[in-house]
Write a structure and sequence with these properties.
mainly alpha
Length: 407
């Protein structure tokens, strides 16, 4: 028997130690889950956006499909180390850091991944950036309401650039292809075509670097935000080196997978690209993306690359463009933010309703099941390196039906 005046305080201290230990383990586990899911999103970003850099190069035959993808993968990885301004924007300019929690970031990432994989299945070149931003904002709205979102940052850093980027890229690409056509008008077609194919290797490489400087940074920003929410980093801390390395590797590996479904849409869907047009489109895209990375704007590289491809088609006399497909893709761009936001909000609501780390694990299992179903469905109509240059089933407007291969 011990005296109550001694035993009760000792027991209370022991319970507090157990509670503190459990809380610490819980937070570490939750943080690790969020980081793993963030890297999974980065991976999907890689294969979803591979087309932005390589679709014209593959469509014109400048590089073999596998070679183009491997080169892009390496340069995406390298590009991720060249700038951290976009990461800083994602971490600090879109949501209130003092209100962010790990379950919110987790739910936002789940929403973004599900939207990315869904649009990949339907071969729609939508924005991974907007999927990520929408998912996190949707979860934040459920957690803390409208005051938790930095609306001015969202408008100035995301919404306005998303509207202007494809238009700027379209005009820039149009000007570039007109200039290329005039500069080479006295060069015979075979020599010009060969020269532009060689040039495409360089322009595709530059575009892959540019993609790495912008898209990899977004996941770095989210992981940094998670570390701040966990108390691991102070609010004004810079992105740790290990976050930079892991995100660079994840997007590089994702790019290596190929994302062939979207490559086919961008390379063969909007118009029939020549080496001259492919070179002009990639140079214009690189210029716009590198400028946005320098300014710290998390631009959608998909919007830019698509705008450039459509621009070179529109600027070429008698060049058929699938304007119906362009309209459908533009509509997908418009709904990406709200749809990913709804997915993120739903994910957070369900996770919170179940409660704790268990709720996060259940939600992860549900999401994994959904992704597994999408992958299984995608096996019914496989697009890979061997058939990525097959034309889409619908004939181009103004083009003879004989020129369009069966998909």
């Amino acid at each position: 028997m011990c005296d109550k005046s001694v035993c009760i305080p000792v027991l209370f201290v022991h319970i507090r130690e157990i509670s503190w230990y459990d809380w610490t383990v819980h937070n570490v586990l939750l943080l690790l889950i969020v980081i793993v899911v963030a890297l999974a999103f980065d991976f999907t970003n890689g294969f979803h956006d591979t087309a932005n850099a390589v679709a014209p190069t593959i469509a014109t035959g400048a590089l073999k499909p596998r070679t183009a993808v491997v080169l892009s993968s390496v340069l995406n990885l390298v590009g991720a180390f060249l700038s951290l301004k976009v990461a800083a924007t994602i971490a600090s300019a879109l949501v209130a850091q003092n209100l962010v929690t790990l379950p919110v970031i987790f739910a936002g990432l789940i929403g973004a991944i599900c939207w990315n994989v869904t649009t990949w299945y339907f071969a729609i070149p939508s924005s991974s950036s907007h999927a990520l931003i929408g998912g996190v904002i949707g979860a934040m709205l459920v957690l803390a309401g409208g005051h938790s979102v930095l609306w001015s940052g969202l408008v100035s850093k995301v919404i306005i650039p998303s509207g202007l980027a494809p238009l700027i890229a379209l005009v820039a690409a149009g000007v570039a292809v007109i200039a290329a056509r005039r500069l080479t008008k006295k060069v015979d077609a075979e020599t010009s075509s060969m020269g532009f194919r060689v040039g495409q290797i360089g322009s595709s490489s530059l575009l892959s670097l540019a993609h790495g400087t912008n898209d990899a940074q977004k996941t770095m920003g989210v992981v940094t935000l998670a570390l701040i929410a966990n108390g691991t980093l102070r609010a004004d801390a810079s992105t740790p080196w290990w976050v930079v390395v892991s995100c660079a590797v994840a997007i590089g590996l994702g790019t290596l997978i190929g994302g062939w479904r979207i490559i086919r849409t961008m390379g063969k869907g909007f118009t029939t690209l020549t080496p001259q047009q492919g070179f002009a489109a990639q140079i214009a895209s690189s210029a716009v993306i590198l400028t946005s990375s320098h300014m710290g704007i998390p631009l959608s590289t998909t919007h830019v690359a698509t705008g450039s491809i459509v621009g070179v088609g529109a600027a070429t006399p008698q060049q058929p463009v699938r304007w119906k497909l362009v309209g459908n893709v533009a509509m997908a761009w418009i709904i990406t933010l709200p749809c990913a936001g709804f997915a993120g909000a739903t994910a957070y609501f369900l996770s919170h309703a179940i409660g704790g780390t268990f709720g996060v694990l259940v939600l992860a299992l549900v999401a994994a099941t959904y992704l597994g179903i999408i992958f299984k469905l995608s096996r019914r109509s496989v697009v890979n390196a061997s058939n990525v240059n097959d034309a889409l089933g619908e004939p181009l407007e103004g083009a003879p039906r004989e020129s369009v291969l069966a998909a």
